[in-house]
Amino acid sequence: MEIGFLGLGIMGKAMSMNLIKKGFKVTVWNRTLSRCDELVEMGASVGETPAAVVKKCKITIAMVSDPAAALSVVFDKDGVLEEISSGKGYMEMSTIDPETSCKISEAITSKGGSFVEAPVSGGYKHAETGQLVIIAAGDKALFDEAILALNVMGKKSFYLGQVGNAARMKLVVNLIMGTMMTTFSEGIGLAERSGLNPSDLLDILDVGAMATPLLKAKGPNMIKSNFPTAFPLKHQQKDMRLALALGDENAVSTPVAAAANEAYKKARSMGLGNLDFSAVLEVVKPYKD
C-alpha cells in the first residue's frame, strides 16, 4: 500500500519518516516543496500537488497547521477533492475544530472517498519515536485498514465513533495541557521569587502525586529559560482558542482555560510563537520585570 502524506512541518516530517523507515511506500507533498528533499533521499516520492498525491495513493494523510490550511489542501485548485474517489481514503491528522472536520468529511464522502479524523497527542519527540497517541473517528473500515501505519506513528490509537468526536477530544486534551503549562509556569516563578530553588521544586513534583511526563520533560529547560520547540506556542494558542469556542458551543464555563489563553496570546504578541509552548513562562513568571 502506498501512503500519501501532505504537510511536512515539525510533526509531519517525523511521522512520514517513520513510515518510510518501516518500509511503507510514501509519496509526500509540502507547500514548500524543498522540505521534501530529505524524505526523497530516504526513498519517498514527491507529488507536485495534493491532487497528484491522492491520485497515486490509496490512503492520504494530512498533517497541517490549522483549520484554514486543512481546508486549503482539500478545496483549493489541485487539492484533494480533484482526485478523491471510491476506494481512496483520506485521514486528517491535523488539530482542527469539529466543524472543519465535518466539512472536509462531507466533501470527501460526497466524491465516494472514505474519511477518518485522527489528531495526535504528543510533541515532536513523540512523533520522532513513534510514540504519539492517536485519537480517531470516522469510517471504521478505513481506520482498520490504516491501523498498521497508525501503529508506526503512535503507541496507541483510540477509535471514538462518528466524525467530530476525535476533534472534540483532542481540543479537550490540549485545553488541559495548555492550562497545566501556565500553572506550572506560575509555580516556577513563585518558587524562584520566594527564594526557593526551582530545581528542588521539579524534584519534589517528580516524586509526588502530580508527577507527569509533561512536567518532567519541560521543567529542566524551563528553569534555564530554554524553550526548544517540540510543540510551537502559536499552535497551542490556536488549540486553546478552538477549545474555548467548543466550550461556548456547549455552554461550558472555562474561566481557567480562558485566563491561560490570554497568557499564550500575550506570548505570541511578544514574538514567542515559534518557540515551544513552555515559553509561556516568559509571560506568567512574576519575577520577570
Structure characterization notes:
The chain is α/β, with parallel strands linked by helices and 289 residues long. It folds into two domains: 2-163, Rossmann fold; 168-284, N-(1-d-carboxylethyl)-l-norvaline Dehydrogenase, domain 2. It has helices spanning 10-21, 37-42, 50-56, 67-75, 98-110, 124-129, 140-145, 147-153, 165-193, 198-206, 213-222, 233-249, 255-269, 281-284; strands at 2-6, 25-29, 45-46, 59-62, 89-92, 114-117, 120-121, 132-138, 154-159. Strands 1, 2, 3, 4, 5, 6, 7, 8 and 9 form a nine-stranded mixed β-sheet that branches. The longest helix has 29 residues, at 165-193.
Count of discrete domains: 2
Order of helices and strands: EHEHEHEHEHEEHEHHEHHHHHH
Query: Which superfamily, in CATH terms, is the homologous superfamily of the largest domain?
Result: NAD(P)-binding Rossmann-like Domain
- How big is the Rg? 20 Å
Shape: globular
Structural class: alpha/beta
User: Termini separation (Å)?
Assistant: 57 Å
Question: Major beta sheet, specifics?
Answer: 9 strands, mixed
Could you tell me the strand content as a percent range?
Answer: 5-15%
What's the CATH class of the largest domain, please? Answer: Alpha Beta
If you consult CATH, what is the topology of the largest domain?
Rossmann fold
Task: Kindly state the number of beta strands.
Answer: 9
Helix fraction bin: 40-55%
Domain 3-hydroxyisobutyrate dehydrogenase-like NAD-binding: 164-283
GO cellular component, one term: cytosol
GO molecular function, one term: NAD binding
Catalytic activity: 4-hydroxybutanoate + NADP(+) = succinate semialdehyde + NADPH + H(+); glycolate + NADP(+) = glyoxylate + NADPH + H(+)
